[in-house]
């Protein structure tokens, strides 16, 4: 059987193409879910940010293993770096070489889109409300290693918040209660007045036409 020589450089170029496409798709998760139009909440923005970075972590972790595989197949670090630099991935190579995850950071253009959308629909800018949480998550993810294959378990602080109340409106008196039908039918309201020929309940709740009809019933 003839031995087939493996060219790790060609294989790596294919892996780099998949890496670039995967990074783009992972980042699009955030914008696709938060800039779809309509009202968006800080909770939805943070959820989308976490999910976007989870997908991005998987892509970077896979590329980290592909780089290691290329080295095992005999490719030098300089050759790997050259391949990635030629594909515009110089910074990515630096992080992969260090085994560190580089999280997605929404750009100034994305932040401006949130401002425009919120002005158009007359709603608060949910991105501004969520930015402090996003910054903190970014700090945590920046320290995440690609060597352990463990994406941090990050809780969204906007989840499970108590339901908003009506404030002062909640203490306003409600509507008056409807008449108690059981009370209307008891003896207090059931005695017929000899003059009006109606009970107290009938005088209170029946219309004049209904009262007249009830009187005729009692005289026949």
How would you concisely characterize the structure shown here?
By secondary structure, this protein is mainly α.
Total count of helical runs of at least 4 residues:
10
Question: How big a fraction of the residues is strand?
Answer: under 5%
Number of strands: 0
Apparent shape: rod-shaped
Instruction: Write the element-wise H/E pattern from the N-terminal end onward.
Output: HHHHHHHHHH
Secondary structure: helix percent: 55-70%
Features:
220 residues
How is this fold's topology laid out?
Layout: H1 8-34, H2 42-72, H3 77-86, H4 90-98, H5 108-121, H6 126-142, H7 181-184, H8 187-190, H9 200-205, H10 208-219
Helix pairs in contact: 1-2, 1-3, 2-6, 3-4
Question: If you had to describe this structure to a student in words, what would you say it looks like?
Answer:
With 220 residues, this protein is mostly helical. The chain has two domains: 8-158, no CATH class; 181-219, no CATH class. Helix content is 61%, strand content 0%. It has helices spanning 8-34, 42-72, 77-86, 90-98, 108-121, 126-142, 181-184, 187-190, 200-205, 208-219. Residues 164-172 and 174-189 have low confidence and may be disordered.
């Amino acid at each position: 059987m003839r031995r087939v020589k493996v060219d790790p450089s060609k294989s790596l170029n294919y892996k780099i193409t998949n890496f670039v496409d995967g990074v783009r798709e992972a980042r699009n998760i955030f914008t696709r879910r938060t800039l779809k139009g309509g009202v968006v909440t800080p909770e939805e923005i943070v959820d989308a940010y976490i999910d976007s970075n989870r997908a991005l972590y998987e892509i970077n972790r896979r590329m980290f293993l592909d780089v290691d595989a290329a080295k095992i197949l005999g490719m030098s670090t300089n050759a790997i770096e050259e391949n990635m630099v030629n594909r515009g991935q110089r910074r990515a190579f630096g992080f992969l070489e260090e085994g560190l995850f580089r999280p997605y950071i929404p750009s100034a253009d994305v932040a401006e889109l949130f401002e425009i959308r919120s002005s158009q629909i007359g709603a608060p800018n949910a991105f501004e409300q969520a930015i402090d949480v996003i910054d903190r998550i970014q700090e945590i993810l920046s320290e995440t290693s690609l060597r352990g294959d463990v994406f941090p378990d990050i809780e969204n602080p906007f989840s499970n918040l108590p339901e908003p109340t009506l404030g002062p409106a909640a203490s306003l008196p409600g509507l008056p209660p409807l008449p108690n039908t059981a009370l209307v039918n008891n003896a207090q309201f059931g005695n017929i007045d000899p003059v009006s020929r109606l009970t107290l309940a009938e005088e209170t709740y029946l219309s004049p036409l209904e009262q007249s009809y009830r009187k005729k019933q009692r005289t026949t």
